[in-house]
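Hey team,

Filing this mostly as a record. A colleague (T.K.) asked me to run one chain through the structure pipeline before their review meeting, and I want the input and output archived in the tracker in case anyone asks later how it was produced. No errors, nothing strange. Just documentation.

Input sequence:
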Amino acid sequence: PSLYLLGMDGETLFSSGPLPRHYNTKHYSNWGVLRKALSTPMEVVFHGVDPRERHYQNKVMTAAIGITLSDTLQGVLLLDVGREEFQQIVQAKAQGTFMDVVILSDIGNVLYSKNRLVEEGKPLQREGSYDGVLKSGQYQVMKEDRDLHGVFTSSGRYPFQVLTYASLDEVKSNATYLLRILFYVGIYTLIIY
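Output structure:
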């Protein structure tokens, strides 16, 4: 990840990598992630990467916070999260066998797609039963000639939605396998007693 600490006058106080041009607080404070961070100081905000800047360090998203001292906005701290770091987090935390894990921004743009089955940086085309108010739901869809089952979930704490989907054949196979195991456990229990 790249970390930047910027003053309100456009001054770079700290930078762990090349500073993107649009992080200049003097010229771009009303645009993108700077606008979000500076309009809600002392609160962490998340910003999905615009498709036009996705090439920059293979970035997935930016976390930012506007910094105040004595109720005066002094600057902004930004953390760019790259695709590789995000991939490590998802692989370490995801459970089960999924065709894809997709992280969506609060407005439904694809921040990250593990296997890139959907296009990152663009809105996800939702199919099936999706509740826009609850930001959750399920759907079935054909992708890469496979019948997939997907589930959307959201977090009350963070402005993200997660979509996971797996092959229906794999889901059915796992369910059948679990039923078979339960059957054997039942027979084994009867034999012991």
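Quick notes for T.K.: The longest strand covers residues 59-69. The chain has a mean pLDDT of 76.
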